Amino acid sequence: MSTVLLTGANGFIAATTLRKLLERGHTVVGTVRSESKTTFLREQFKAAVDSDKLKFAIVEDITVPGAFDAVLRAYQFDVVLHTSSPFHFNITDIDKELLQPAIQGTVGILDSIHRVSPS
After folding, report:
1. What is the DSSP string of 7-71?
2. Closest of 27, 51, 56, 52 to residue 41, by C-alpha
3. What are the contacts of 85-90 at 24+ separation with CB within 8 A?
4. What is the CA radius of gyration of the chain?
5. Residue 4: exposed, middle, or buried by beta-carbon count in 10 A (0-12, 13-18, 19+)?
6. pTM for the whole thing?
7. Are the beta carbons of 21 and 54 closer than 8 angstroms?
8. Across the strands, what pairs with 5?
9. Residues 6 or more apart from 18 whose CB is under 8 A from it?
10. How far apart are CA 79 and CA 14, in angstroms?
11. What 8-state DSSP symbol labels residue 34?
C-alpha cells in the first residue's frame, strides 16, 4: 500500500479521510499545528499508531514558505492530500483570515513538493 501525507489531519474532513485511508491499509503521516492536536487522533486510531501505520508531523504555520519541507524530506510519499486550511470562528476579515492563508498554504505545499520531492 502507499504512504500518504495528509495535511491538517485533525480537521473535520481530514479525520474522515484518515479513517478511510487506514481502513484501506495505507500508511499515513498526518500534519497538525501542534503536538497537542495529536491527542484525539492518537486515541481514536491507537492501533494504527501502535503499528506505525499512523505517524504525525508538526507544521505550525502552513503559510510560511517551506513549511512542509521537513516532513517531505523525512518520508517518501506516494500521495499528498492537502486538507489543511486555517480556520476559526471569530472571523472579522474573510479574505485576510481565511482565503489568503488557505491560498498561501496550498501554493506553499505545491512549491515544497516541486522543490523537495519532485517525482
Report:
1. ETTTSHHHHHHHHHHHHTT-EEEEEESSGGGGHHHHHHTHHHHHTTSEEEEE-S-TTSTTTTHHH
2. 56
3. 85/8, 85/11, 86/62, 87/11
4. 14
5. buried
6. 0.94
7. no
8. 29, 80
9. 6, 9, 28, 30, 41, 45, 54
10. 14
11. S
Bridge partners of 56? 30
Amino acid in position 9:
A
pLDDT digits over 29-88, tens only?
Answer: 999 999 999 999 999 999 999 999 999 999 999 999 999 999 999 999 999 999 999 887
Q: Of the given ranges (38-52, 84-98, 103-117), which has the lowest mean pLDDT?
A: 84-98
Read off the C-alpha cell for 118: 519532485
**pLDDT value of position 107:** 97
Q: What grid cell was written down for 60?
A: 505550525
Question: What is the residue whose three cell numbers read 506516494?
Answer: 78
Secondary structure letter of residue 24 according to DSSP: T
82 three-state secondary structure: strand
